[in-house]
Amino acid sequence: MSATQMRAVGITAFGSPSKLEVMSLPVPEIGPDDVLIRVQAAGVGPWDCSIRHGDWGMLPGHSFPLIIGAEGAGVVERTGANVTRFHEGDEVYYYAPPLGSYAEYVAVPAAIVASKPATLDFVHAAAVPCSALTAHQVLTEALALAAGETLYMTAAAGGTGTFAVQIARDLGASVIATASAHNQAYVHELGASEVIDYTQVDVVEVVRARHPEGVAAAFDVLGGESLSRSLAMVRDGGRLAYITLPQQIAASRHIEVQHVVGQPDAQRLEALAQLIDAGSLQVYLETVLPLEEAAHAHELIDGGHVRGKIVLRVDSNN
Fold first, then answer.
1. How much is the pLDDT for 3?
2. pLDDT at 318
3. What does the radius of gyration of the chain's CA atoms come to, in whole angstroms?
4. Which domains does the chain have, with CATH numbers?
5. CA-to-CA separations, 290 to 43, 95, 241, 293, 317, in angstroms, rounded
6. How do residues 12-54 score in pLDDT, each as one tens digit?
7. Which among 197, 194, 199 is positioned nearest to 211, based on CA atoms?
8. Alpha carbon of residue 114 to chain centroid
9. Burial zone of 250 (CB within 10 Å; 0-12 exposed, 13-18 middle, 19+ buried)
10. Beta-bridge partner residues of 309
């Protein structure tokens, strides 16, 4: 393969995981404010699956083939003329939605790239950006969670939930989390004070019995009927945030409902790196797969019950 071409995984039509295919595509060009990153590992999440499935339709400014992947970690290969923060060889990680990371190279605006956590290898670093950044944004900004408050968290064992429980714990909040029996101990280890097996009981009934006035805030990552149940947990005047596709929800009782889309933010990634390097935030992986097995990674995400994150190893030497 020539130096101008790269391995990538993408789609030429929306659909099931089988639509993902390995391609040979041109190495992306960079502008004066960009960095070209030699990707070592790429995180996989529900957002990638939504893009592949076509839930958002064709994104403005894009066309097939679409290289999937919004987050990753790697090494700076080249910098644009205006870039002074990074140099060739720097180890970095990034959240750069919507596309491009399931590839050997990706072009990313330098303004949304951060130095990789020093204590993490590339594979673990690639699991952080999207999920941790979104969780941090929801809890510290949208919900403004404060010490002493109680948070209800859905799918606490998943990629975003894993980081959210830890961040809420460090903010001094108590966390009521839902998880299957298989993940009960795991979610307790993350810092949840109460873990409810949603497969065995009526979660609303259990939470309301223990907290008759409701909880201060809820963070829902599932959407659909789960969002309605989360709303029922929240006390009058409380707050609810969700990150799935926007949907109509009949908020009442003066509950503030926010739909949040995680935004690229280098400063937040730098802050998360500090938490990780200080040992306050742990990274958990369900599995690591080679880039060529991206379809299997998407099958696992679509099937649910992933604990922590799935990562694709792009460079087999890391």
1. 65
2. 63
3. 20
4. 5-128+284-313 (3.90.180.10), 131-259 (3.40.50.720)
5. 12, 20, 34, 6, 11
6. 999 999 999 999 999 999 999 999 999 999 999 999 999 999 9
7. 194
8. 16
9. exposed
10. 285
Cα 119 to the center of its chain, rounded Å: 20
Residue length of the chain: 318
Question: Which segments of the chain have a pLDDT < 70?
Answer: 1-3, 318
Q: How many CB atoms lie within 10 A of CB 247?
A: 11
Q: How many CB atoms lie within 10 A of CB 124?
A: 23
Q: Are 272 and 128 in contact (CB under 8 A)?
A: yes
Q: Report the predicted TM-score, pTM, of the whole model to 2 decimal places.
A: 0.95
Query: Residue 244 contacts by C-beta under 8 Å, 6 or more apart in sequence?
Result: 220, 221, 222, 223, 224, 227
Q: Which amino acid is at 129?
A: P
For 148-157, the pLDDT digits (tens) are 999 999 999 9
Cβ-Cβ contacts under 8 Å for 185 (sequence gap 6 or more): none
On whether the CB atoms of residues 307 and 284 are closer than 8 A, the answer is yes
* Whole-number pLDDT of residue 2: 43
Q: What CA dihedral angle connects 292, 94, 69 and 247, to 10 degrees? A: 150
